[in-house]
Amino acid sequence: MKSDSAVPNDESQQHGLAGVDESRPEAGKRPEIDRNASSHDLRASLAIVNGFSAALGASFQDLSDQYSEIIELESDKISTESTDRLMMLDADCRFCLSRLRTSIDQLKHRLATEHEILNPGQLSDSEQ
Amino acid sequence: MSVDLALPANVSCPLNELVLVDDDALTIEIVSWILKKGTHDSHLFTNTGAALSYLKLNTPRLLIVDFYMPEMTGLDFISDLYESTNLEHTKIYLCSAVRPPRDSVERFADMNVDMLDKQLICDRSKLTELLDRHLAES
């Protein structure tokens, strides 16, 4: 699997929305598309939050199962493969948790944008 | 947007892979994470220019394009691609979290393009099912 260079790396993701392009075409040029795009962004963020949430749940379950399996073994019977898998699942959980946080930040940002479109000039609840 | 490339696309033997084009880096990341768990080949793009350059040289079996992108809509992207590439053997989906405008729906109804809910590509089991349906095991 390959991704292009525009995909943020782990480092950029540690700084909130770094690497997430929130830009849209100039307002008014394509009003229907712009309005739909805002709604789309909001729902897309929800889908992403759901996706990372489910991924975190599945990864944590796998981690928990693997951990239980290992602690029932005598120490000399624990294989390198088992501990490697445990570390990989731990990394998966950390990755999903990190992206879940970022996607929730993105959702909050997009909610504020949607609020501004629906109520121009009014502060959203999070800004008051 | 125009990308001039001299070589023709490989239309007789589409690559057994998914190409996803979506400006949202987090969408790319979750799809990337899901794909990492499977065996299917893929190329993921957040940049439409880079994606067009790639797709004018390589024809994938499955192409998913986000509808709402800042540089161009997914439909404009596919229209651009249609002008220079044979997509006869490529299954194409436009991905959106909301229903696109009516005139856009009429445009892609004339093409070999189906709609896909954004929720689906963020869901591991549903995306895997879609990939298994369209891509042979690699």
Give the fraction of residues assigned to helices of chain B.
Answer: 25-40%
**N-to-C CA distance of chain B:** 33 Å
> What is the succession of H and E elements of chain B?
EHEHEHEHEHH
- Share of helix of chain A, binned: 55-70%
Number of helices of chain B: 6
Classified by CATH, the class of chain B is Alpha Beta
Mean pLDDT of chain B: 86
If you had to describe this structure to a student in words, what would you say it looks like?
The complex is a heterodimer of chains A (128) and B (138). In chain A, 66% of the residues lie in helices and 2% in strands. Chain A contains three helices and one strand, in the order βααα. Chain A is mainly α and 128 residues long. Chain B contains six helices and five strands; from the N terminus they run βαβαβαβαβαα. Chain B is an alpha/beta fold and 138 residues long. Chain B is globular, with a radius of gyration of 14 Å. The N terminus of chain B is likely disordered. Helices cover 39% and strands 22% of the residues of chain B. Chain B has a single domain, classed as Response regulator (Rossmann fold). Chain B has a five-stranded parallel beta sheet with strand order 2-1-3-4-5, with helices on both faces. The termini of chain B are far apart. The longest helix of chain B is centred in the first third of the chain and has 12 residues. The interface between A and B is large, with 42 and 37 residues.
